[in-house]
## 1
Amino acid sequence: EPEVTQTPSHQVTQMGQEVILRCVPISNHLYFYWYRQILGQKVEFLVSFYNNEISEKSEIFDDQFSVERPDGSNFTLKIRSTKLEDSAMYFCASSTDRGDSPLHFGNGTRLTVT
Amino acid sequence: GEDVEQSLFLSVREGDSSVINCTYTDSSSTYLYWYKQEPGAGLQLLTYIFSNMDMKQDQRLTVLLNKKDKHLSLRIADTQTGDSAIYFCAASGGGNKLTFGTGTQLKVEL
Protein backbone atom coordinates (compact mmCIF):
# COMPACT_ATOMS: atom_id res chain seq x y z
CA GLU A 1 0.00 0.00 0.00
CA PRO A 2 1.40 3.43 -0.90
CA GLU A 3 2.45 5.54 2.04
CA VAL A 4 3.66 8.99 2.99
CA THR A 5 7.36 9.03 3.82
CA GLN A 6 9.15 11.60 5.93
CA THR A 7 12.83 12.31 6.44
CA PRO A 8 14.69 12.52 8.68
CA SER A 9 13.00 10.58 11.45
CA HIS A 10 14.80 12.67 14.05
CA GLN A 11 16.42 16.10 13.68
CA VAL A 12 18.38 17.89 16.35
CA THR A 13 19.19 21.54 15.81
CA GLN A 14 20.36 24.54 17.78
CA MET A 15 18.10 27.44 18.54
CA GLY A 16 18.19 30.02 15.76
CA GLN A 17 19.12 27.54 13.05
CA GLU A 18 17.04 26.83 9.98
CA VAL A 19 15.60 23.36 9.47
CA ILE A 20 13.88 21.73 6.53
CA LEU A 21 11.64 18.76 7.08
CA ARG A 22 10.98 16.64 4.04
CA CYS A 23 8.00 14.60 2.96
CA VAL A 24 7.09 12.52 -0.05
CA PRO A 25 3.29 12.35 -0.27
CA ILE A 26 1.40 9.51 -1.93
CA SER A 27 1.88 9.92 -5.66
CA ASN A 28 -1.69 10.51 -6.85
CA HIS A 29 -2.59 12.80 -3.96
CA LEU A 30 -3.20 16.46 -4.61
CA TYR A 31 -3.56 17.97 -1.13
CA PHE A 32 -0.74 18.17 1.37
CA TYR A 33 -0.64 19.06 5.03
CA TRP A 34 1.64 19.57 7.99
CA TYR A 35 0.56 18.87 11.54
CA ARG A 36 2.60 18.88 14.71
CA GLN A 37 2.39 17.29 18.12
CA ILE A 38 4.23 18.84 21.01
CA LEU A 39 5.08 16.17 23.59
CA GLY A 40 2.06 15.48 25.77
CA GLN A 41 -0.24 17.73 23.75
CA LYS A 42 -2.76 17.28 20.96
CA VAL A 43 -1.93 16.92 17.29
CA GLU A 44 -2.38 20.41 15.79
CA PHE A 45 -3.02 21.56 12.24
CA LEU A 46 -0.33 23.81 10.78
CA VAL A 47 -1.01 24.26 7.09
CA SER A 48 -2.67 22.81 4.01
CA PHE A 49 -1.32 23.15 0.47
CA TYR A 50 -2.87 22.64 -2.93
CA ASN A 51 -1.94 23.61 -6.46
CA ASN A 52 1.34 25.12 -5.32
CA GLU A 53 -0.13 27.46 -2.79
CA ILE A 54 -1.25 27.50 0.82
CA SER A 55 -4.97 26.75 1.16
CA GLU A 56 -5.25 27.36 4.87
CA LYS A 57 -2.93 27.94 7.80
CA SER A 58 -3.29 28.07 11.55
CA GLU A 59 -2.17 30.79 13.95
CA ILE A 60 0.88 28.66 14.74
CA PHE A 61 2.08 28.96 11.14
CA ASP A 62 3.70 32.36 11.40
CA ASP A 63 6.37 34.02 9.25
CA GLN A 64 9.02 31.65 10.60
CA PHE A 65 7.35 28.79 8.74
CA SER A 66 7.14 28.15 5.03
CA VAL A 67 6.15 25.25 2.80
CA GLU A 68 7.22 24.35 -0.68
CA ARG A 69 6.74 21.69 -3.29
CA PRO A 70 10.09 22.05 -5.03
CA ASP A 71 9.50 19.24 -7.52
CA GLY A 72 6.83 16.73 -8.45
CA SER A 73 7.35 14.50 -5.46
CA ASN A 74 8.64 16.37 -2.40
CA PHE A 75 6.80 18.60 0.03
CA THR A 76 8.88 20.50 2.56
CA LEU A 77 8.36 22.47 5.75
CA LYS A 78 11.00 25.06 6.57
CA ILE A 79 11.42 26.71 9.95
CA ARG A 80 13.59 29.75 9.42
CA SER A 81 14.95 30.38 12.91
CA THR A 82 14.05 27.62 15.32
CA LYS A 83 12.96 28.26 18.88
CA LEU A 84 12.92 25.88 21.82
CA GLU A 85 9.14 25.72 21.62
CA ASP A 86 9.33 24.38 18.06
CA SER A 87 10.46 21.05 19.50
CA ALA A 88 7.73 18.61 18.49
CA MET A 89 6.83 15.72 16.24
CA TYR A 90 5.96 17.04 12.80
CA PHE A 91 3.60 14.98 10.67
CA CYS A 92 3.12 15.32 6.95
CA ALA A 93 -0.14 14.11 5.41
CA SER A 94 -1.71 13.92 2.00
CA SER A 95 -5.14 13.25 0.55
CA THR A 96 -6.66 12.84 -2.88
CA ASP A 97 -9.41 15.36 -2.31
CA ARG A 98 -9.94 18.26 0.03
CA GLY A 99 -13.37 17.46 1.28
CA ASP A 100 -14.15 13.81 1.25
CA SER A 101 -11.08 11.69 1.37
CA PRO A 102 -9.13 10.74 4.47
CA LEU A 103 -5.69 12.05 5.33
CA HIS A 104 -2.82 9.60 5.23
CA PHE A 105 -0.02 10.51 7.59
CA GLY A 106 3.68 9.81 7.55
CA ASN A 107 5.63 8.48 10.52
CA GLY A 108 6.70 11.95 11.53
CA THR A 109 9.94 13.80 12.12
CA ARG A 110 10.88 14.41 15.73
CA LEU A 111 12.46 17.87 15.91
CA THR A 112 14.51 18.69 18.98
CA VAL A 113 15.70 22.27 19.38
CA THR A 114 18.48 22.75 21.93
CA GLY B 1 -13.52 26.43 17.34
CA GLU B 2 -13.91 22.69 17.38
CA ASP B 3 -12.95 20.79 20.52
CA VAL B 4 -12.52 17.02 20.66
CA GLU B 5 -12.28 15.14 23.95
CA GLN B 6 -11.33 11.58 24.83
CA SER B 7 -10.59 9.69 28.00
CA LEU B 8 -6.87 9.20 28.49
CA PHE B 9 -6.60 5.50 29.38
CA LEU B 10 -8.39 2.22 28.82
CA SER B 11 -7.28 -1.19 30.03
CA VAL B 12 -8.87 -4.41 28.80
CA ARG B 13 -8.12 -8.11 28.88
CA GLU B 14 -7.10 -9.93 25.74
CA GLY B 15 -10.17 -11.32 23.97
CA ASP B 16 -12.54 -8.75 25.45
CA SER B 17 -14.09 -5.89 23.50
CA SER B 18 -12.66 -2.38 23.84
CA VAL B 19 -14.79 0.69 23.51
CA ILE B 20 -13.07 4.05 23.11
CA ASN B 21 -15.26 7.11 23.34
CA CYS B 22 -14.94 10.59 21.91
CA THR B 23 -17.01 13.76 22.03
CA TYR B 24 -16.81 16.75 19.73
CA THR B 25 -18.38 20.17 19.78
CA ASP B 26 -18.89 21.29 16.19
CA SER B 27 -22.14 19.86 14.86
CA SER B 28 -21.09 20.78 11.31
CA SER B 29 -18.22 18.27 11.40
CA THR B 30 -18.61 16.25 8.25
CA TYR B 31 -16.09 13.47 8.77
CA LEU B 32 -14.94 11.75 11.95
CA TYR B 33 -11.79 9.66 12.03
CA TRP B 34 -10.01 7.14 14.17
CA TYR B 35 -6.22 6.94 13.98
CA LYS B 36 -3.91 4.52 15.75
CA GLN B 37 -0.41 5.44 16.90
CA GLU B 38 2.02 2.79 18.04
CA PRO B 39 5.17 3.78 19.95
CA GLY B 40 7.59 5.66 17.71
CA ALA B 41 5.30 5.38 14.70
CA GLY B 42 3.06 7.71 12.76
CA LEU B 43 -0.71 8.09 12.66
CA GLN B 44 -2.30 5.08 11.00
CA LEU B 45 -5.78 5.64 9.62
CA LEU B 46 -8.06 2.97 11.04
CA THR B 47 -11.46 4.02 9.85
CA TYR B 48 -13.68 7.03 9.30
CA ILE B 49 -17.35 7.81 9.15
CA PHE B 50 -19.34 10.44 7.32
CA SER B 51 -21.73 12.46 9.45
CA ASN B 52 -24.85 11.16 7.70
CA MET B 53 -24.06 7.63 8.86
CA ASP B 54 -24.62 6.28 12.34
CA MET B 55 -22.61 3.09 12.13
CA LYS B 56 -19.75 1.64 10.16
CA GLN B 57 -18.26 -1.82 10.56
CA ASP B 58 -14.90 -2.95 9.24
CA GLN B 59 -13.79 -6.40 10.38
CA ARG B 60 -13.13 -6.14 14.13
CA LEU B 61 -13.82 -2.40 14.20
CA THR B 62 -17.25 -0.83 14.71
CA VAL B 63 -17.74 2.92 14.71
CA LEU B 64 -20.91 4.37 16.21
CA LEU B 65 -21.89 7.99 15.70
CA ASN B 66 -24.55 9.77 17.72
CA LYS B 67 -24.79 13.07 15.91
CA LYS B 68 -27.39 14.48 18.28
CA ASP B 69 -25.07 14.03 21.27
CA LYS B 70 -21.91 14.63 19.20
CA HIS B 71 -20.53 11.35 20.46
CA LEU B 72 -18.34 8.92 18.55
CA SER B 73 -17.13 5.52 19.68
CA LEU B 74 -14.75 2.89 18.40
CA ARG B 75 -15.36 -0.71 19.38
CA ILE B 76 -12.60 -3.25 18.87
CA ALA B 77 -13.87 -6.81 19.08
CA ASP B 78 -11.65 -9.62 20.40
CA THR B 79 -8.92 -7.18 21.45
CA GLN B 80 -5.38 -8.49 21.00
CA THR B 81 -2.06 -7.42 22.51
CA GLY B 82 -1.16 -5.96 19.11
CA ASP B 83 -4.01 -3.50 19.55
CA SER B 84 -2.14 -1.79 22.39
CA ALA B 85 -1.54 1.75 21.15
CA ILE B 86 -2.84 5.29 21.40
CA TYR B 87 -6.12 5.86 19.55
CA PHE B 88 -6.93 9.35 18.31
CA CYS B 89 -10.34 10.63 17.41
CA ALA B 90 -10.38 13.51 14.91
CA ALA B 91 -13.13 15.68 13.47
CA SER B 92 -13.18 17.51 10.17
CA GLY B 93 -15.45 20.36 9.24
CA GLY B 94 -14.49 20.02 5.61
CA GLY B 95 -11.26 21.08 4.00
CA ASN B 96 -9.53 18.31 5.91
CA LYS B 97 -8.41 20.60 8.69
CA LEU B 98 -8.62 18.00 11.41
CA THR B 99 -9.08 18.67 15.10
CA PHE B 100 -7.65 15.85 17.19
CA GLY B 101 -8.49 14.58 20.62
CA THR B 102 -5.82 13.97 23.23
CA GLY B 103 -5.67 10.27 22.38
CA THR B 104 -6.71 7.24 24.45
CA GLN B 105 -3.95 4.88 25.52
CA LEU B 106 -5.29 1.33 25.19
CA LYS B 107 -3.50 -1.28 27.23
CA VAL B 108 -4.32 -4.92 26.55
CA GLU B 109 -3.50 -7.31 29.37
CA LEU B 110 -3.09 -11.06 29.12
Note: The radius of gyration of chain A is 13 Å.
## 2
Amino acid sequence: AQSVAQPEDQVNVAEGNPLTVKCTYSVSGNPYLFWYVQYPNRGLQFLLKYITGDNLVKGSYGFEAEFNKSQTSFHLKKPSALVSDSALYFCAVIDVQGAQKLVFGQGTRLTINP
Amino acid sequence: GAGVSQSPRYKVAKRGQDVALRCDPISGHVSLFWYQQALGQGPEFLTYFQNEAQLDKSGLPSDRFFAERPEGSVSTLKIQRTQQEDSAVYLCASSLGGDWRYGYTFGSGTRLTVV
Protein backbone atom coordinates (compact mmCIF):
# COMPACT_ATOMS: atom_id res chain seq x y z
CA ALA A 1 0.00 0.00 0.00
CA GLN A 2 1.12 3.55 -0.70
CA SER A 3 2.00 5.64 2.32
CA VAL A 4 3.87 8.76 3.36
CA ALA A 5 5.30 9.74 6.72
CA GLN A 6 6.01 13.16 8.14
CA PRO A 7 8.41 12.62 11.05
CA GLU A 8 7.96 16.06 12.61
CA ASP A 9 4.67 17.16 14.16
CA GLN A 10 5.94 20.71 14.46
CA VAL A 11 8.65 22.86 12.89
CA ASN A 12 9.62 26.32 14.11
CA VAL A 13 11.70 28.66 11.97
CA ALA A 14 12.69 32.29 12.31
CA GLU A 15 11.41 34.64 9.63
CA GLY A 16 13.90 35.01 6.82
CA ASN A 17 15.60 31.68 7.50
CA PRO A 18 15.32 28.69 5.17
CA LEU A 19 12.72 26.09 6.06
CA THR A 20 12.42 22.36 5.46
CA VAL A 21 9.40 20.16 6.13
CA LYS A 22 10.25 16.48 5.84
CA CYS A 23 8.38 13.67 4.10
CA THR A 24 9.33 10.10 3.32
CA TYR A 25 7.34 7.73 1.15
CA SER A 26 6.72 4.04 0.69
CA VAL A 27 5.17 3.01 -2.63
CA SER A 28 4.97 0.14 -5.02
CA GLY A 29 5.62 1.39 -8.51
CA ASN A 30 6.29 4.99 -9.46
CA PRO A 31 5.77 7.61 -6.76
CA TYR A 32 3.42 10.49 -7.54
CA LEU A 33 3.91 12.90 -4.65
CA PHE A 34 2.16 16.06 -3.56
CA TRP A 35 2.39 18.83 -0.99
CA TYR A 36 -0.70 20.63 0.29
CA VAL A 37 -1.07 23.48 2.77
CA GLN A 38 -4.01 24.06 5.11
CA TYR A 39 -4.73 27.40 6.72
CA PRO A 40 -7.19 27.64 9.64
CA ASN A 41 -10.78 27.03 8.55
CA ARG A 42 -9.71 26.68 4.94
CA GLY A 43 -9.55 23.77 2.57
CA LEU A 44 -6.39 22.11 1.42
CA GLN A 45 -4.47 24.15 -1.13
CA PHE A 46 -2.18 22.52 -3.67
CA LEU A 47 1.47 23.60 -3.54
CA LEU A 48 3.31 21.29 -5.92
CA LYS A 49 3.65 17.76 -7.22
CA TYR A 50 6.29 15.37 -8.49
CA ILE A 51 5.45 13.05 -11.36
CA THR A 52 8.71 12.45 -13.16
CA GLY A 53 11.69 14.37 -14.45
CA ASP A 54 13.65 16.96 -12.50
CA ASN A 55 14.19 16.07 -8.89
CA LEU A 56 13.68 19.69 -7.83
CA VAL A 57 10.06 20.71 -8.23
CA LYS A 58 9.00 24.33 -7.98
CA GLY A 59 5.55 25.27 -6.76
CA SER A 60 3.36 28.05 -5.44
CA TYR A 61 4.35 30.82 -3.01
CA GLY A 62 8.08 30.23 -3.52
CA PHE A 63 8.03 26.65 -2.25
CA GLU A 64 9.99 23.85 -3.81
CA ALA A 65 10.49 20.19 -3.05
CA GLU A 66 13.37 17.83 -3.63
CA PHE A 67 12.64 14.27 -4.72
CA ASN A 68 15.30 11.80 -3.58
CA LYS A 69 14.77 8.27 -4.79
CA SER A 70 17.61 6.68 -2.82
CA GLN A 71 16.34 8.15 0.44
CA THR A 72 12.65 7.80 -0.54
CA SER A 73 12.12 11.39 0.52
CA PHE A 74 10.25 14.40 -0.81
CA HIS A 75 11.12 17.29 1.50
CA LEU A 76 9.43 20.68 1.13
CA LYS A 77 11.72 23.69 1.19
CA LYS A 78 11.71 27.46 0.97
CA PRO A 79 14.83 29.64 0.95
CA SER A 80 13.42 32.43 3.10
CA ALA A 81 10.43 31.89 5.38
CA LEU A 82 7.59 34.39 5.83
CA VAL A 83 5.34 34.69 8.88
CA SER A 84 2.42 34.09 6.50
CA ASP A 85 3.83 30.63 5.72
CA SER A 86 2.68 29.50 9.17
CA ALA A 87 0.16 26.72 8.52
CA LEU A 88 -0.36 22.97 8.48
CA TYR A 89 1.48 21.13 5.70
CA PHE A 90 0.58 17.73 4.31
CA CYS A 91 2.59 15.41 2.12
CA ALA A 92 0.53 12.98 0.03
CA VAL A 93 0.94 10.20 -2.50
CA ILE A 94 -1.46 9.01 -5.16
CA ASP A 95 -2.79 5.48 -4.83
CA VAL A 96 -3.13 4.84 -8.55
CA GLN A 97 -5.24 1.75 -8.07
CA GLY A 98 -8.98 2.20 -8.29
CA ALA A 99 -10.15 5.61 -7.15
CA GLN A 100 -6.73 7.23 -7.56
CA LYS A 101 -7.18 8.77 -4.17
CA LEU A 102 -4.68 10.85 -2.23
CA VAL A 103 -3.07 9.18 0.79
CA PHE A 104 -1.93 11.84 3.26
CA GLY A 105 0.69 12.02 5.96
CA GLN A 106 -0.26 13.13 9.44
CA GLY A 107 0.78 16.72 8.82
CA THR A 108 3.43 19.10 10.10
CA ARG A 109 2.57 22.36 11.78
CA LEU A 110 4.97 25.04 10.57
CA THR A 111 5.37 28.16 12.69
CA ILE A 112 7.42 31.09 11.43
CA ASN A 113 8.51 33.39 14.23
CA PRO A 114 8.93 37.12 13.52
CA GLY B 1 -19.29 27.88 -8.96
CA ALA B 2 -15.72 29.00 -8.65
CA GLY B 3 -14.81 26.47 -6.00
CA VAL B 4 -16.02 23.48 -4.05
CA SER B 5 -18.68 24.55 -1.59
CA GLN B 6 -19.54 22.62 1.55
CA SER B 7 -22.37 23.18 3.97
CA PRO B 8 -22.88 23.60 6.79
CA ARG B 9 -19.49 24.93 7.83
CA TYR B 10 -20.08 23.78 11.39
CA LYS B 11 -22.45 21.19 12.80
CA VAL B 12 -23.00 20.21 16.40
CA ALA B 13 -24.95 17.01 16.85
CA LYS B 14 -26.08 15.18 19.93
CA ARG B 15 -24.92 11.61 20.12
CA GLY B 16 -27.41 9.42 18.33
CA GLN B 17 -28.61 12.12 15.92
CA ASP B 18 -28.47 11.74 12.17
CA VAL B 19 -26.59 14.38 10.15
CA ALA B 20 -26.30 15.24 6.47
CA LEU B 21 -23.33 17.08 5.01
CA ARG B 22 -23.50 18.64 1.57
CA CYS B 23 -20.88 19.13 -1.10
CA ASP B 24 -21.30 21.26 -4.24
CA PRO B 25 -18.39 20.45 -6.56
CA ILE B 26 -17.08 22.67 -9.31
CA SER B 27 -19.53 22.59 -12.20
CA GLY B 28 -18.62 19.90 -14.70
CA HIS B 29 -16.27 18.03 -12.42
CA VAL B 30 -16.69 14.32 -12.92
CA SER B 31 -14.92 12.98 -9.86
CA LEU B 32 -15.88 13.65 -6.26
CA PHE B 33 -14.14 12.46 -3.09
CA TRP B 34 -15.01 12.59 0.59
CA TYR B 35 -12.30 12.61 3.26
CA GLN B 36 -12.44 12.58 7.05
CA GLN B 37 -9.87 14.60 8.98
CA ALA B 38 -9.71 13.91 12.69
CA LEU B 39 -8.10 16.50 14.96
CA GLY B 40 -4.34 16.51 14.55
CA GLN B 41 -4.41 13.99 11.71
CA GLY B 42 -4.19 14.00 7.95
CA PRO B 43 -7.30 13.53 5.83
CA GLU B 44 -8.37 9.94 5.30
CA PHE B 45 -10.28 8.71 2.26
CA LEU B 46 -13.91 7.80 2.73
CA THR B 47 -15.51 7.36 -0.67
CA TYR B 48 -15.29 8.23 -4.38
CA PHE B 49 -17.83 8.99 -7.09
CA GLN B 50 -17.41 9.21 -10.81
CA ASN B 51 -20.51 11.07 -11.98
CA GLU B 52 -23.39 9.41 -10.09
CA ALA B 53 -21.63 6.08 -9.63
CA GLN B 54 -20.05 5.35 -6.28
CA LEU B 55 -16.98 3.43 -7.39
CA ASP B 56 -15.15 3.10 -4.09
CA LYS B 57 -16.58 3.19 -0.58
CA SER B 58 -13.81 1.23 1.07
CA GLY B 59 -12.96 4.04 3.48
CA LEU B 60 -16.40 4.38 5.08
CA PRO B 61 -15.77 3.42 8.72
CA SER B 62 -19.10 1.74 9.38
CA ASP B 63 -22.53 1.10 7.90
CA ARG B 64 -23.70 4.26 9.69
CA PHE B 65 -21.97 6.24 6.94
CA PHE B 66 -23.71 6.62 3.61
CA ALA B 67 -22.94 8.85 0.62
CA GLU B 68 -24.84 9.63 -2.53
CA ARG B 69 -24.56 11.74 -5.66
CA PRO B 70 -27.81 11.00 -7.47
CA GLU B 71 -27.46 13.39 -10.41
CA GLY B 72 -23.73 13.41 -10.72
CA SER B 73 -23.24 16.85 -9.21
CA VAL B 74 -24.15 17.62 -5.57
CA SER B 75 -23.19 14.95 -3.07
CA THR B 76 -24.44 14.28 0.43
CA LEU B 77 -22.62 12.40 3.17
CA LYS B 78 -25.02 11.07 5.77
CA ILE B 79 -24.05 9.78 9.17
CA GLN B 80 -26.66 7.92 11.15
CA ARG B 81 -26.73 7.60 14.94
CA THR B 82 -23.65 9.81 15.34
CA GLN B 83 -21.01 8.80 17.86
CA GLN B 84 -18.33 10.92 19.52
CA GLU B 85 -15.64 9.30 17.39
CA ASP B 86 -17.37 10.76 14.33
CA SER B 87 -16.24 14.25 15.40
CA ALA B 88 -13.95 15.46 12.63
CA VAL B 89 -13.70 17.79 9.66
CA TYR B 90 -15.27 16.27 6.58
CA LEU B 91 -13.62 17.43 3.36
CA CYS B 92 -14.96 17.16 -0.15
CA ALA B 93 -12.78 17.35 -3.25
CA SER B 94 -13.65 17.34 -6.92
CA SER B 95 -11.70 16.77 -10.11
CA LEU B 96 -12.43 17.52 -13.74
CA GLY B 97 -11.71 14.03 -15.01
CA GLY B 98 -11.35 10.49 -13.87
CA ASP B 99 -7.56 10.67 -13.80
CA TRP B 100 -5.49 12.12 -10.94
CA ARG B 101 -3.49 14.20 -13.38
CA TYR B 102 -6.41 16.62 -13.58
CA GLY B 103 -5.71 17.62 -10.01
CA TYR B 104 -8.08 18.04 -7.07
CA THR B 105 -9.86 21.07 -5.62
CA PHE B 106 -10.84 20.85 -1.97
CA GLY B 107 -13.68 22.54 -0.17
CA SER B 108 -13.25 24.24 3.22
CA GLY B 109 -14.88 21.33 4.98
CA THR B 110 -17.64 20.77 7.52
CA ARG B 111 -16.55 20.56 11.14
CA LEU B 112 -18.76 18.04 12.91
CA THR B 113 -18.78 17.96 16.69
CA VAL B 114 -20.75 15.20 18.40
CA VAL B 115 -21.63 15.95 22.03
Note: The two ends of chain B are 33 Å apart (CA to CA).
